[in-house]
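Hello,

Our lab assistant flagged a job as stuck in the queue for most of the afternoon. It eventually completed. Since we weren't sure the result was trustworthy after the delay, we are filing this so someone can double-check. Below is the sequence as submitted and the structure that was eventually returned. Let us know if re-running is recommended.
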Amino acid sequence: MSPNGEPWLIIGQGLAGTCLAWEFLGRNEPFKIIDRGFGGSSRVAAGLLNPITGKNFEPSWRITDFYTESIDFYLRVERQLAHQLWYPLPILRLASSDKEWSKIAAKLELPQTARWIADTSPDHPDGFVAAVELTGGGRIDTANFIKLSATFFTERGLLEIGDHRGSPSGGRYILCEGASGLIENQIGQHRCAKGEILTVKSNWPETHIRIGSGGWLVPIGNNLFRVGSTYEWNHLTEYPTATGQERILNIARILGGSHFEIVDHVAGIRPILRRSQPLLGKNQNNDWIFNALGSKGTLYAPKFATMLADWILEGIEPNEDFILGSHFD
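-- returned structure --
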């Protein structure tokens, strides 16, 4: 129970708030979620899980600490909701130049990279010089994770649509407000970035997630693909733009081809702090904060929810790298 003996109030039902709610539910800890009921990057995210990322072809930060626990979490929630959430799919990492491939090839046999390598010479689309196939990839259906979880918690009286602002906390708030909280200077200097994503329909192959040329193309079934994404640091709105659409259309043409139709266009704001790492802790009002999941929230949210629950309920502090105070000292 919270310090005043009442249920914890989880503010925000994005990835962070939803994962924490499932964690509390599994521990029979009383809680209620308060959510505005719209917006947020979790509702529009592609849910891409990629073990080796970026231009430098590096393992995702601390992936060995988070990967298995995250997948196990989503599979447990799948069973609870009777709906598939985790869609494993190999990744085709594409190199558009000899220079890029040289950088990738130099890391293929490193221990932290080799464990994720399935094939170093798979077939690849025209326009790319080489490719490598990665295991461990896939996507979380974040939209349905949020939506179906909301229904589950609402039916049990554990979710309320509303605004907590101005109401007393008593130290029982757990603020999981994502980008909106960071933009309001809830923690400190932020690096939130707007991203736009297209859903398109085409007869492209659906055997792999394709990553290359600064973008990705993710099959989601029934000849539908999600394509993204953009990064915009200055105009932080949740509205799609013509400029963003044109950038993503170019990615779609490069990774897929020229024959497709646009089905949907969405935008969201990634909650990012300076080191692009999730953080936990308390603010000056003695309320807890769980935020800054960034663009890889599907990977990090489940275990961070476990760590925060351990800290709140058992007094077990996480590694200092994950604590707000050490981040800003």
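-- support follow-up --
The delay was a queue issue, not a problem with the job. The result is valid. The radius of gyration is 20 Å. The CA atoms of residues 323 and 329 lie 11 Å apart.
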